[in-house]
Amino acid sequence: MAERFAGIALGHVTKEYPHKLDHVLHSDAYAQTPRALHPVFYGSFDWHSCVHGWWTLLTLRRRFPNMSMAQDISALADASFTAEKLAAELAYLDRPLSAGFERPYGWAWLLSLHLEASRHDSPWAAQLEPLAGAFADRLRHYLDILTYPIRVGTHFNTTFALILSLEWAEQFDIPLAGLIRDRARHWFGADRDCQAWEPGGDEFLSSALTEALCMARVLPPAEFERWFAAFLPRLLDREPATLFTPATVSDRSDGKIAHLDGLNLSRAWGWRAIAPLLSPGSAELARDASLEHLAAAMPQVAGDYAGEHWLATFALLALLA
Question: Average of pLDDT values for 229-252?
Fold first, then answer.
């Protein structure tokens, strides 16, 4: 499976087209190709998918160093994560109207990529460090000015970004880690009786389970168990029922509808990650729900490029949980 996922990611992190830019034109001079704008993260249909495609590759390389593609991953990373190319990625952030570029999803994935790179005996982390620092500074400012959290199950979701960013901050920026915990408690600590109005038609994150996983990361285990019991008080009755029912995907060639395969994987990740923190009966339900969602989504990781350019990452999150 690692070989398969690595092959999928190697097939798209340097695939420039088709491409969907997150790019604001300031003048005619700003109309440039993906590779000219982003000499490292120009593949995978969009910037953030390329970033987490690289996270997938480095994670697989570390965990399965003897797989046949490990050397290919290393060689491509050496050629990609150069000081010159990453300086261009950093300079992009200084362009006019780039303040909201990839906020907050791409920011969090870049931090995760830097964290993963730091686990390898290579110069990749050092080369990525300035870019990671720039996004950490942006995240700090964003958390200071964000009055209300964003709960929608797409790229703008606040809790997903906090989960990934917290793991990075715990190693590289302790004050930011404290801020993340404080903001999570402030925004979500009093949430009760979640109705789980999901899925929306183009969501790839479970707003309910991503929030639960975020709180599992910021609260001590006993406090989380109390919080979760109030958040989903009818869990043993399998309510809300939608959280136990894999989403139906009607058209996998439609990029937005294909998001729902990702929703099934993100639910599998959420259920699987919180199960060890629950009472035995609740934990069994969580594990069963995770397996059901995995069964629905795993056959869809490759096929149409609308999902293939990103789904392996979310399958890896679920499996590593």
Answer: 97
Q: Are residues 226 and 126 in the same domain?
A: no
Query: Residue 285 pLDDT > 90, yes or no?
Result: yes
Shared domain for 137 and 1, answered yes or no, is yes
Domain that holds residue 235: 192-321
**Strand runs labelled E in the chain:** none
Asked, for residue 153, whether it belongs to a domain, the answer is: no
- In this structure, the answer to whether residues 112 and 216 fall within a common structural domain is no
Q: Say how far apart CA 51 and CA 126 lie, in whole Å.
A: 16
**Last residue within a domain, chosen from 83, 113, 145:** 145
Q: What are phi and psi of 196, to 5 degrees?
A: 55, 60
Task: Dump the DSSP string for 288-315.
Answer: HHHHHHHHHHGGGSSSSHHHHTTHHHHH
Cα dihedral value 299, 257, 308, 253, nearest 10: 100
Amino acid at 61: R
Residues 140, 240 within the same domain: no
What's the pLDDT band for 222 if we cut at 50, 70, 90? very high
Please report, as a single letter, which amino acid is at residue 136.
A
- CA-based R_g, the chain, Å: 19
Q: For the segment 55-104, what is each residue's pLDDT rounded down to a tens digit?
A: 999 999 999 999 999 999 999 999 999 999 999 999 999 998 999 999 99
199 upstream amide cis, omega within 30 of 0:
yes
Check residue 6 and give its pLDDT: 98
**pLDDT score for 96:** 87
Q: Looking at the 3D structure of the chain, how many domains does it have?
A: 2
Give the DSSP H/E element, type plus range, for residue 102: none
The DSSP code sequence of 196-231 is: -----TT--S-HHHHHHHHHHHHS-HHHHHHHHHHH
